[in-house]
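Notebook, student rotation project (T.W.).
Task set for the rotation: take a protein with a known small-molecule partner, predict the structure of the complex, and write up what can be learned from the model alone. Partner molecule chosen: NAP. Sequence and SMILES entered below by T.W., checked by me.
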Amino acid sequence: MPRILVFGAGGVGCIYAYILHKAGASVTAVCRTNYNVAKTKGITVRSKIFGRQHFQPTVVKTVQEALQHGPFDYLLVCSKAFPGTAELIKDAVTDRHTAIVLAQNGIGLEEDYVKLYPENTIISGVVYLPVTQVDQGVVEHGPLERFEIGTFPADAGEQAKSQCRGLSELFKAGGGSAPLFDDIQPLRWIKVAVNAAWNPTTALTMCDDANYLRSSPQAEPLIRGIMKEVSTVAAAAGYPDAITHEVIERDLARPKSRLETGGKEPSMLTDIREGRSLEVEAIVGNTLRLGQRYGVKTPYLEMLYALAMARSFALRPDERWKPIARHDSDDARP
Ligand SMILES: NC(=O)c1ccc[n+]([C@@H]2O[C@H](COP(=O)([O-])OP(=O)(O)OC[C@H]3O[C@@H](n4cnc5c(N)ncnc54)[C@H](OP(=O)(O)O)[C@@H]3O)[C@@H](O)[C@H]2O)c1
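Predicted structure of the complex:
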């Protein structure tokens, strides 16, 4: 029976824990705020695909505490992608054994893990899973479940490929879907183009996607412009065919179809409403830094990055700006 550690038992973590538990794996979940509820009452899933389900994984408070339930065959990173996350799982990674699975939005996330865990398989995943933790230990999941996975790097050796196949089979056995890709990066680029376009624009304007599109004639061209900019970076990084004209049109068709019925909130807008930190670095920062690496100009991303980082900064009372003592000379402007 494979042993699995889920780090970050929020929306995505709870659904993936459920699928793997159903597949017969031994699942341990590192929980933080929802620890007490998950430990005493288990996890409840209300899903358009899986129905109403309840299950009890092994629940621990810390990665160190999880160790007694290892060694782990797979460690799924399902927390939000923030700088420094790779360090947090260190104690539960067994060299040359634990496959680290990234179930997070963003681009270029793998590099930190390769540096810290050079002997381990890295499986990079693109998550299509509309899910929210509506109460502690209770998650609501919509009608889509698809976890696109591939090794990082794409040409990893046979052991890594075999671990990746193993994860795909486990998902299938648990009623889920984790299709394998020889190279996952083009799919990551598509997702990050969509996220970079919609997340900061809606979060900064506090408009859902349909309201954003309705707001001015410039709204839609800006979304196209951001996606094209990400596409230029992807091309410079070696993926010229990832973000096609069809991808952009398909992405825009969804919010356009909601113009009359009401829009959807991208996750960064929800994070702002809830006062949570934003995944700006993983989605916008890493994309523009890759642009810099390959000599691509990214004026839209640079502006979004500065504004979204400032918005994120303002949400965190611990780091918020404090008034600086004023001097009379400050007013000595012409
Ligand atoms: N939800 C979706 O619909 C969706 C869809 C596609 C992709 N994604 C991506 O999937 C990833 C996960 O998203 P999510 O919506 O599942 O996020 P989420 O609901 O906020 O869950 C993240 C979980 O990680 C926990 N966590 C964070 N740091 C931790 C730490 N140091 N120790 C223990 N637990 C920790 C959080 O605990 P606390 O509750 O204590 O903060 C929370 O339970 C993100 O990259 C997101 O962009 C999400």
